Amino acid sequence: MLGDMRALSESEIRNSFENCSHGEAQRLHLPAHWDRSDWQSMAFLGWIDPKSPHRGYVVVDSPSGARGIVLHRVQHRGRPTAQMCQFCLTLHGGTGVSMYSAARPATKKERYSSLGTYLCSDLGCSEYTVGSKRPEGIRQMEETMTIEDRKERTTDNVRRFIQRLSDRRGR
Ligand SMILES: [Zn+2]
Questions:
Q1: What is the CB neighbour count within 10 angstroms for residue 47?
Q2: Does residue 133 fall inside a structural domain?
Q3: How far is the CA of 96 from the centre of ligand 1 (A)?
Q4: Ligand 1 centre from 109 Cα, in Å?
Q5: Of 3, 8, 24, 126, which is least packed with CB atoms within 10 Å of its CB?
């Protein structure tokens, strides 16, 4: 169906990373049971590193193949007001949303440059998008979109962020 994610192989996932070294991408920890993922219900593959909780990974399929990025969670205190994930537009209270930062693909000039965005702390956007997971105790926006449309919107948001990251001129 339109919007369904294509099942990705381990090498596709590892070779998709655009903002870390090849060696790092070969060594990074895949999510537990990733090979049994229910790809069809996902907008993209997002997970927290099982060994280092401040690192996260996002891999999205695109017309030009899988594109992945490494993200670093910037610690922050929970906020009293609800915040919205910029990928799946889910509202979370407390520490449900975190600031994540992604390094731009390294070039000599912009080696230290990065881009930040607010995302679901657990990177469970795919599950929030299809409603298999819901933040507790917080009312979501009323939406009339179908799940397929929501998945497409989430996928688009991820692709746009990765594109912005790799675009040298865009800020
Ligand atoms: Zn999200």
A1: 20
A2: yes
A3: 9
A4: 31
A5: 24
43-63 tens-digit pLDDT: 999 999 999 999 999 999 999
User: 3 lies in a domain?
Assistant: no
- Residue 100 tokens read as 């994540």
Quote the ligand 1 centre to 17 CA distance (angstroms). 20
Distances from the Cα of 66 to the Cα of 6, 11, 153, 164, angstroms: 9, 11, 17, 16
**19-34 b/e with 16+ CB inside 10 Å = b?**
bbeeeebeebebbeee
Please indicate, yes or no, if residue 1 is contained in any of the structural domains: no
Q: Is residue 71 part of a domain?
A: yes
What residues does the ion ligand 1 have nearby, CB within 5 Å? 85, 87-88, 120, 125
Domain that holds residue 103: 10-166
Q: Name the amino acid, one letter, at 54.
A: H
Cα 121 to middle of ligand 1, angstroms = 8
d(CA 112, CA 70): 14
The total number of structural domains in the chain stands at 1
CA of 33 to the centre of ligand 1 (A): 21
Per-residue pLDDT reduced to its tens digit, 11-44: 999 999 999 999 999 999 998 888 888 898 999 9
